[in-house]
């Protein structure tokens, strides 16, 4: 198989940076992108990646122009929608969806015409346990991830007949810099009634930062295996969504069991709503 060419957003650190380095190590080509100065990607360029400035919060037309420049040097086989950060805040106090949701939509829309034309390609979405179940103080973040889940489900069905594959990886807590204070955006107009919860969220972020159980290198190795149908993924059907990390597995299983219990306990009521 000839080397695949990947486009990865949010490559300057964390899962994105680790993914780029592992893609190169596996013999594929990769375009690493991030917003801001390309200096942030200089080490990845030295490692063999192509680098471009791509701000997923820009307009769709601006993102399309960047994608067009990337395509000038060759086709893209895999898009990884990785760019994002933690948006914290109480549900009544905050709302902000630009990077984690709308940025993903615009970047995917910019690459889809290319994938449709060649009737092949792979779109990867980086989800979260925050898209499976909500947590106190994470309303803005969970809102984006829940929205991504629904949009992804539609996109997957709409593009399957075009030879385009897609998958969403649900990540638990992995030891990256995403929980660093500089990367946790608190967008709130504080309401006193929520102070105990807000303080608890702050304490949790401080305690988990640098102590997350997940190893990013192990996660990205699995992501690459799934896309390339190699390693741990060889011989397995492509999953619609794949949780990574025991913590995320526990969240998904708890949610699934809870939903199943509701279906079983309320089935007679649920079925009673049709016309007689």
UniProtKB/TrEMBL annotation:
Q: Which Pfam families match?
A: adh_short
Q: Which domain of life is it from?
A: Eukaryota
| Identification of the protein by name | NAD(P)-binding protein
Q: Which family does it belong to?
A: Belongs to the short-chain dehydrogenases/reductases (SDR) family.
Q: Which UniProt keywords apply?
A: Oxidoreductase
Q: Which Gene3D superfamilies match?
A: NAD(P)-binding Rossmann-like Domain (3.40.50.720)
Quick check: keyword Transmembrane helix in the entry? no
